[in-house]
């Protein structure tokens, strides 16, 4: 039977959940306040296999998340929604020492046995490197990983929400609050309309999950982190679509999107939390550093600064699943700096859970209840 489901948050998690729910014939309402969204600020790299992080549950989530893009794009295309927001363009990893590149090379080969999507792996030098990325300077060698991809979060969620609307979802640019009755059933409160009773609710509110659940007596172990990204616009002919993304050692990555668009990001500003002001004292040095590898960017006339808020739990682990004490309410948060990689898969799994289906990943490995605690009576 058709279920009435509300999705709070229209970032990558909420937009993917909404698309799959609406596609399955559910009656979906999406609410998004449009403020600070991490997804809209992020132009990101999908290349999780090279991480030194030793958390196996996290690695499984991001590795399967990267692979899930094939299904997502195929489903969108079969529904008539093609997008160039995502491209598997390969990644070039730059290292200060040959030893570092060799170490990452060996890790990539080892992990490729479980993750064939990693694709070609090779250390490129001289003319091979020049051919892979002609404008690249100041790099004698680089590790090429064929499965690396890039995605524009803003463009992808736009397509996902268009597809969700096509299947009947309604999209509301509103900030909502929640109310619950004594049985733990949730209602959505919009600024104007009457309370809406629902069969299920998905909370995909990113870094704002604590604020959303606090009035119901919950304490949520999630904090916000400011992220800034610079998007440069050059002559349309200056960059072909096919250049790989560049991942130097350190904080910034360089993402050529083709049509003259290059993204440089991103900052990780813990002390700035939910602040959304562009700050040149942070972005100018990022730009300067990017020009050491791509000097042609110096001539760029126009630049946009995108600012968004990432969500982190105290142990940096993402979480998703049922919210303790609430009926048919499912949440995700804490996706951190790999949320464009894991977010579509998590959104898909939340849609499955809201329809009473099993999750294909063990949700006990990412328990929402460990971070969302009922600590007070409802106001
Ligand atoms: C600059 C930057 C660069 C990044 N680069 C990468 C990268 O290279 N690779 C990668 O994998 N990840 C990257 N990330 C991380 C990734 O973007 C995030 O982890 C991911 O987008 C989080 O998605 P989300 O749907 O959980 O949250 P969000 O995208 O933040 O969406 C949550 C939405 O909920 C809305 N909301 C909250 N409360 C309410 C309410 N009460 N009512 C209505 N709406 C509400 C918010 O306004 C927001 O729009 C980057 C992030 C940033 C900021």
From TrEMBL:
<dbReference type="GO" id="GO:0016491">
    <property type="term" value="F:oxidoreductase activity"/>
</dbReference>
<keyword id="KW-1133">Transmembrane helix</keyword>
<feature type="transmembrane region" description="Helical">
    <location>
        <begin position="5"/>
        <end position="22"/>
    </location>
</feature>
<keyword id="KW-0812">Transmembrane</keyword>
<keyword id="KW-0285">Flavoprotein</keyword>
<dbReference type="GO" id="GO:0005737">
    <property type="term" value="C:cytoplasm"/>
</dbReference>
<comment type="similarity">
    <text>Belongs to the DadA oxidoreductase family.</text>
</comment>
<keyword id="KW-0472">Membrane</keyword>
<protein>
    <submittedName>
        <fullName>Fad dependent oxidoreductase</fullName>
    </submittedName>
</protein>
<dbReference type="Pfam" id="PF01266">
    <property type="entry name" value="DAO"/>
</dbReference>
<feature type="domain" description="FAD dependent oxidoreductase">
    <location>
        <begin position="4"/>
        <end position="353"/>
    </location>
</feature>
<dbReference type="InterPro" id="IPR006076">
    <property type="entry name" value="FAD-dep_OxRdtase"/>
</dbReference>
<dbReference type="InterPro" id="IPR036188">
    <property type="entry name" value="FAD/NAD-bd_sf"/>
</dbReference>
<keyword id="KW-0560">Oxidoreductase</keyword>
């Amino acid at each position: 039977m058709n279920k009435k489901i509300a999705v709070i948050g229209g970032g990558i998690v909420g937009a993917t959940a909404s698309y799959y729910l609406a596609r399955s014939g559910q009656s979906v309402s999406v609410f998004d306040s449009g403020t600070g969204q991490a997804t809209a600020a992020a132009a990101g790299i999908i290349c999780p296999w090279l991480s030194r992080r030793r958390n196996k549950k996290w690695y499984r989530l991001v590795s399967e998340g990267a692979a899930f893009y094939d299904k997502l794009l195929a489903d969108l295309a079969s529904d008539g929604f093609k997008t160039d927001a995502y491209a598997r363009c390969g990644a070039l990893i730059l290292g200060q020492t040959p030893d570092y590149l060799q170490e990452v090379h060996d890790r990539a080969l080892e992990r490729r046995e479980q993750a064939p999507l990693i694709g070609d792996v090779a250390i490129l030098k001289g003319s091979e490197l020049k051919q892979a990325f002609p404008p690249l300077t100041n790099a004698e060698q680089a590790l090429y990983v064929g499965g690396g991809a890039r995605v524009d979060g803003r463009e992808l969620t736009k397509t996902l929400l268009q597809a969700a609307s096509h299947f009947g979802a309604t999209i509301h640019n509103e900030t909502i609050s929640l109310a619950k009755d004594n049985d733990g059933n949730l209602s959505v409160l919009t600024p104007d309309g009457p309370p809406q009773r629902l069969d299920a609710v998905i909370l995909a509110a990113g870094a704002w999950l604590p604020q959303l659940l606090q009035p119901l007596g919950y304490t949520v172990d999630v904090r916000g982190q400011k992220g800034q990204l610079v998007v440069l616009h050059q002559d349309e002919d200056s960059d072909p679509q096919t250049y790989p993304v560049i991942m130097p050692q350190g904080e910034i990555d360089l993402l050529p999107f083709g049509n003259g668009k290059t993204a440089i990001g991103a900052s990780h500003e813990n002390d700035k939390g939910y602040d959304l002001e562009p700050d040149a004292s942070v972005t100018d040095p990022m730009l300067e550093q990017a020009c050491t590898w791509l000097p042609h960017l110096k001539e760029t006339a126009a630049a946009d600064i995108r600012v968004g808020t990432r969500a982190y739990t105290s142990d940096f682990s993402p979480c998703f699943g049922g919210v303790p004490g609430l009926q048919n309410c499912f949440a995700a948060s804490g996706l951190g700096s790999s949320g464009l990689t894991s977010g579509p898969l998590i959104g898909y799994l939340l849609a499955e859970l809201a329809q009473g289906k099993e999750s294909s990943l063990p949700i006990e490995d990412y328990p929402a209840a460990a971070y969302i605690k009922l600590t007070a009576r409802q106001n």
